[in-house]
Design brief:
The complex is a heterodimer of chains A (279) and B (597). Chain A is α+β, with helices and mostly antiparallel strands. Chain A has 5 helices and 10 strands, in the order H-H-H-H-E-E-E-E-E-E-E-E-E-E-H. Chain A has 2 domains: 109 residues, no CATH class; 144 residues, Immunoglobulin-like (Sandwich). The longest helix of chain A is centred in the N-terminal third of the chain and has 33 residues. Chain B has 597 residues and is mainly alpha-helical. The chains are: A alpha+beta (279), B mainly alpha (597).
């Protein structure tokens, strides 16, 4: 092998590697520490638990990231350009220390995240919807969301996909002439819900997989053709929020969006009456 | 486990003629190089596709000169349509995951070096081996043909979820012949991979030279062996899944399609199927697949770091057991791709535990790599830089797994750019760094010439900084809720994020351009590189005991005998700072399991 160059003897490449790794690590951490790009303010009752979980995870992941990169940089700096006559030394504790550190540190972290993380998931998925939750059905189809309220009878009429007629605004394929429950159903292109009341969202897929995602609500759930899925949640802040489709559904996927409007109970009642009259 | 006294007789005669030597060769070294060449074509194609995607995302209405000749309908006047964006994206993912990340670190380097590192004359089944490559090549041709058929390539992503991918052209452009060709291509690829995996396993178990116990195999060989075990089970599930998909598309079956679907204004004539079934089958393959992509590179960079550090890792066994644990756990976690898929939420919770647990062996590996640097004598070459870069990138990509492993956090981050950043770093870039490292390290052995170290180091710096510039910002976009697989960003909140996308696109174009330095180095050195000595890195494993390049029968008809563990560096009382595995030199090493008398 060729004799080492003077740069190799001094370990120039190694030192450069160490510097660059440290710079990259710091540069990566800065936007996080400055909260430059963060989730939007949460508007749901279950959201704070998720956000707390995210913060905890960011702290642990962030510290692990920085520690590992700094350690890599430090060791590469210190041990490159070492003279050929130097003795090889072993990290104190050797492999046992490494395995122990991994199992104890990471094991604890992992258990904590896994067990604590259950809470947020459970509040979304393992509780039944309240008996007086506002019932809304949403249908996702290439490339729009439509919504249906059951009306005063509190019942949704059956769906007939063969009767879907977008030209006549029959998005759900309802047959009010033959299905009495459909007569008072209210179909809208926008989702409005009352604030501080639980909403039970029934999810129906018209054609392929879609997904319902509202960032501020901390809600995301796929629509699966053939499956009756539902979500329940409570919004605690009024406002207008975007609904995005997040499951690739075809060429219009990027443009498949809707709006969620959270209104006071009074305004919601007015809105619903208004929509009912437009049916 | 027994050592066969003499390797199972291969005894194929030296190849005659150009076709036998270079085209339809049964020589594992030629086949390895063929896989490498195919991966090279695939990676530059995939990279080009990503350029088109990144360009379109920040300049959606600008024409790309010439693109209209690739597809008049997909890119009229050179402006990419929303459906063509999705086609490009689908082909990008498919090419990269299958034809680059499975081919290069595993099929290419594994084929070339696994037999050599265990002291064998060739693979156990040389003709199956040749078939594996040519079947892979056929799969590639079938896949690429999707660009040129009516409707173009599929738009359903490399994940190809049903029913979008199953109902046919009603669900969108590209969902006609293009999607069927995709499924056929993947099915063909599965067959090739299964043959290859069988070959690797049989070779490793049966063809080791005298004295080459399993524990004396280099870590790169261990990684290829473990990967082939995973691959055997994983591809065995993907193959029937793609066949079922093809049947749904062409034979009117309904494995993945329920009733009453109104797609493209047509009531679909299917009933009884389950879209979630596709996801389960696909991800049961798909998760082990990402470990198939990363494990070989872990083995390669371990092998290279040891040589560069002039000392073995803190524990040979810990690395092996960690890789085995990762392989085992990789089969328990597939549902973490499906947390919000509509699957039973209790299952989601169950999948999150092994997903979090797999962090432990990954951390053991990382800490051992880091801890072994302590007290070492690190001598840095281009290969070393990429191996060290692997560790940095694996850490960066790995820690974001903490977020995604938790279903409650995945509620927010699923299908955002956070996920895309995670898998590109931890799988895409890291695995490719392993391939680069392996190339710089083994090129002298494969060709008999040295690559330019100057160009290699330049390639490293541009790529290392460049890939961080591309993929680290993906995480910030994801935290802001930037959804993935969108061809254009029309959401209200996307405005302030566009400068980030512009930064990424420019980084991607520049970093991509830097790869041509590597390509130039590869080609130029092949013909004009300095002649390489037999063992330019003073390394210990068996590939360095043979001429560069090796003769057609590797060990010249002789049967090597192995006396030592693979990484005898810095051994007390030895002449020189390393002892080769086949050296009869008696040394005092506590790691020798048995010495041959």
């Amino acid at each position: 092998m060729a004799a080492p160059t003077s740069g190799e003897k001094r370990g120039t490449m190694g030192k450069l590697f160490a510097v660059i790794v440290v710079l990259i690590a710091i540069a990566s951490a800065v936007p996080i520490l400055m909260h430059k790009w963060v989730p939007p303010a949460d508007i749901s009752t279950h959201g704070p638990t998720i956000d707390e979980q995210m913060s905890d995870t960011m702290a642990e992941a962030g510290l692990s990231f920085l520690a590992a990169q700094f350690l890599l940089a430090f060791f590469v700096w210190k041990f490159s350009g070492v003279p050929a006559t130097a003795k090889i030394r072993t990290f104190p504790g050797g492999a046992t220390a490494m395995v122990a550190a991994a199992v104890i540190l990471v094991g604890t972290e992992v258990l904590a995240l896994g067990i604590l993380g259950q809470r947020a998931w459970a509040t979304v998925y393992f509780t039944a919807p309240a008996a007086n939750a506002v019932q809304v059905q949403t249908q996702a189809g290439q490339f729009a969301f439509y919504f249906r309220y059951p009306g005063p009878d509190g019942k949704f009429g059956p769906l007939h996909p063969d009767k879907i007629d977008e030209g006549n605004q029959n998005f759900f394929g309802l047959d009010p002439d033959n299905d009495p429950d459909s007569k008072d159903d209210i179909v809208t292109a926008e989702l409005a819900i009352p604030v501080n009341r639980e909403v039970h969202l029934l999810m129906h897929a018209k054609d392929v997989n879609h997904s319902f995602y509202v960032r501020e609500l901390r809600i995301q759930q796929d629509f699966v053709p053939g499956l009756d899925l539902s979500l329940h949640f409570t919004a605690n802040k009024t406002g207008r929020y975007e609904i995005l489709c997040t499951q690739l559904c075809g060429l219009g996927h990027y443009n498949m969006k809707g709006y969620l409007t959270v209104l006071s109970q009074e305004d919601f009642d007015t809105w619903l009456k208004q929509k009912a009259s437009e049916q | 486990m027994h050592d066969i006294p003499a390797p199972a007789a291969q005894h194929h005669t030296p190849p005659q003629g150009f076709i036998r030597k270079h085209i339809f060769s049964v020589d594992h070294k030629v086949i390895g190089k063929q896989y490498y060449g195919l991966a090279l074509v695939a990676v530059f194609t995939g990279m080009g596709l990503s350029w088109l995607m990144r360009f379109h995302l920040v300049w959606p209405n600008k024409a790309i000169y010439g693109l209209q000749w690739l597809s008049k309908i997909g890119a009229p006047g050179g402006v990419i349509t929303p459906e063509y964006y999705l086609s490009l994206m689908t082909m990008h993912g498919t090419l990269m995951v299958f034809f680059v990340l499975t081919n290069a670190p595993f099929a290419a380097f594994g084929n070339y070096f696994l037999p050599i590192q265990i002291g064998a004359e060739d693979m156990a089944f040389p003709r199956f081996n040749m078939m594996s490559f040519w079947i892979t090549f056929l799969a590639f041709v079938v896949l690429i043909s999707a660009f040129f058929v009516p409707g173009g390539p599929p738009i359903s992503g490399w994940t190809s979820y049903a029913p979008l991918s199953a109902v046919g052209p009603d669900s969108g452009p590209g969902e006609g012949l293009g999607q069927t060709l995709w499924a056929v291509s993947i099915a063909i690829f599965c067959v090739a991979s299964l043959l290859g995996a069988l070959n690797f396993i049989a070779t490793t178990l049966d063809l080791r030279a005298k004295g080459m116990t399993l524990m004396r195999m280099p870590l790169s060989t261990w990684a290829w062996f473990i990967t082939s075990c995973i691959a055997l089970l994983a591809f065995a599930v993907l193959l029937p899944a793609t066949l079922l998909l093809i049947l749904d598309r062409v034979a009117g079956t309904s494995f993945f399609i329920p009733s009453n679907l109104m797609v493209g204004d047509r009531l679909q004539p299917h009933s009884g199927g389950s879209p979630l079934l596709w996801q389960h089958l696909f991800w049961f393959f798909g998760h082990p697949e990402v470990y198939i992509a990363i494990l070989p590179s872990m083995g390669i960079i371990s092998h290279i770091l040891i040589t560069s550090m002039r000392r073995p890792l803190l524990s040979h066994k810990a690395i092996i057991y960690s890789m085995l644990s990762i392989a085992f756990l990789s089969y328990m976690v597939w549902g973490h791709h499906m947390f919000v898929s509509g699957m039973n939420p209790f299952s989601s919770l169950m999948f999150s535990f092994p997903t979090l647990l797999i962090t432990i062996p990954s951390t053991i590996l990382t800490l051992i790599w880091l801890g072994s640097l302590y007290g070492s004598k690190l001598h840095i070459t281009s290969a070393t830089l990429f191996a060290l870069g692997f560790v940095s990138m694996f850490v960066s990509g790995g820690v974001t797994g903490f977020f995604l492993a938790q279903p409650s956090i995945d509620i927010y981050l699923h299908a955002t750019y956070f996920v895309v950043g995670h898998f590109h770093m931890v799988m895409g870039v890291a695995s490719l760094f392993g391939v680069f490292a392996g190339t710089y390290f083994w090129f002298p052995k494969m060709t008999g010439r040295m690559m330019s170290e100057t160009l290699g180091k330049l390639h490293f710096w541009l790529t290392f900084v460049g890939t961080y510039c591309i993929f680290m910002p993906f995480h910030y976009l994801g935290l802001a809720g930037n959804v993935r697989r969108y061809s254009t960003f029309v959401n209200d909140f996307m405005g302030p994020l566009m400068p980030v996308h512009k930064f990424i696109t420019i980084a991607a174009l520049l970093t991509g351009a830097s790869q041509f330095i590597f390509l130039y180095n590869l080609i130029h050195s092949r013909f004009r590189g300095k002649p390489a000595p037999q063992n330019p890195w003073n390394a210990t494993s068996l590939e360095w005991t043979m001429p560069s390049p090796p003769p057609w029968d590797n060990f010249g008809g002789k049967h090597p005998v192995v006396y030592h563990d693979p990484y005898q560096y810095g051994v007390e009382g030895s002449t020189g700072d390393y002892v080769m595995q086949d050296s009869p030199e008696q040394i005092k090493s506590v790691r020798d399991e048995k010495t041959l008398t």
